[in-house]
């Protein structure tokens, strides 16, 4: 049964990746907005923002990486919506394939596309002067956290992708996620914010993730932030997976 699931997922993943390869503009589009934010904040606002860092791009990049993921997962919901409306899910149900492999193929496609987008954003940051003396182990830790965050948000994206009534509705859910880093430590230290706003920023999911990635890049101790970040990512992933599978079973029953 497990072998059957992996084989079916690999086959459907190939199908989804071919769609991505034929529409490279999807990956390009998801990187344009984060890169535009990075250029705007570094070269227009950077000189007026006190971040405690010699180079503002050093401070800014972790938040931009999360915005990249949030903008990329909208396409997962959109592609799922199109598959639902095209009737291809019903055709898959008539075939001897593992049911959950259909969703996992979309999720893994999202992961691949988002990792490519993240790599492009990091390359642009390097051209803008970002530098890190972090060890290979620290870079792997950053990759692991971003991968986990991408998987968590992608499973969140599956829910509107399956249940939305329109294509715009399927992808619009990502807009609040894109702007969540703006009320966090992504652009300025949270201690510069008014009391209630600071309380929200300090205790929402992305702040601990951003602070962990920033500390890893800067070769500083991550403290308890890494455990809070992992707890948020794993908690969101588990809940989103359960709700997504419940929605999927209801749709195909």
TrEMBL record:
Bilayer-spanning residue ranges: 24-45, 57-82, 103-130, 136-158, 170-188, 226-244
Membrane topology of this protein: Multi-pass membrane protein
Family affiliation: Belongs to the ABC-2 integral membrane protein family.
Protein name: Transport permease protein
InterPro entries noted in UniProt: ABC2_TM (IPR013525), ABC2_TM_bact-type (IPR047817), ABC_2_transport (IPR000412), Nod_factor_ABC_transporter (IPR051784)
Keywords of this entry: Antibiotic resistance, Cell membrane, Membrane, Transmembrane, Transmembrane helix, Transport
Keyword Coiled coil: no
UniProt keyword NAD present: no
Pfam families: ABC2_membrane (PF01061)
Location in the cell: Cell membrane; Membrane
Source organism: Nocardia jiangsuensis
Residue ranges of domain ABC transmembrane type-2 in the record: 25-251
PROSITE patterns in the cross-refs: ABC_TM2
């Amino acid at each position: 049964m497990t072998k059957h699931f992996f084989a079916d997922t690999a086959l459907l993943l190939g199908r989804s990746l071919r769609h991505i390869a034929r529409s490279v503009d999807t990956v390009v589009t998801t990187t344009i907005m984060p890169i535009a934010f990075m250029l705007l904040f570094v070269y227009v606002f950077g000189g007026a923002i006190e971040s405690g860092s010699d180079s503002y791009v050093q401070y800014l990049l972790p938040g931009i990486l999360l915005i990249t993921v949030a903008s990329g997962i909208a396409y997962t919901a959109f592609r799922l919506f199109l598959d639902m409306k095209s009737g291809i899910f019903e055709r898959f149900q008539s075939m001897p394939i593992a049911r959950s492999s259909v969703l996992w193929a979309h999720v893994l496609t999202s992961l691949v596309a988002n990792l490519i987008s993240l790599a492009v954003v990091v390359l642009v940051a390097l051209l803008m002067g970002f530098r890190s003396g972090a060890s290979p182990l620290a870079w792997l830790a950053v990759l692991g956290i971003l991968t986990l965050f991408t998987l968590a948000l992608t499973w969140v994206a599956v829910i509107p992708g399956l249940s939305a009534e329109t294509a715009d509705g399927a992808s619009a859910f990502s807009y609040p996620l894109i702007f969540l880093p703006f009320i966090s430590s992504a652009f300025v230290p949270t201690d510069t914010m008014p009391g209630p706003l600071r309380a929200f920023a300090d205790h929402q999911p992305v702040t601990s993730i951003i602070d962990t990635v920033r500390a890893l890049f800067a070769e500083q101790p991550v403290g308890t932030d890494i455990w809070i970040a992992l707890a948020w990512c794993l908690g969101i992933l588990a809940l989103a997976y359960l709700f997504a599978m419940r929605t999927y079973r209801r749709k195909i029953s």
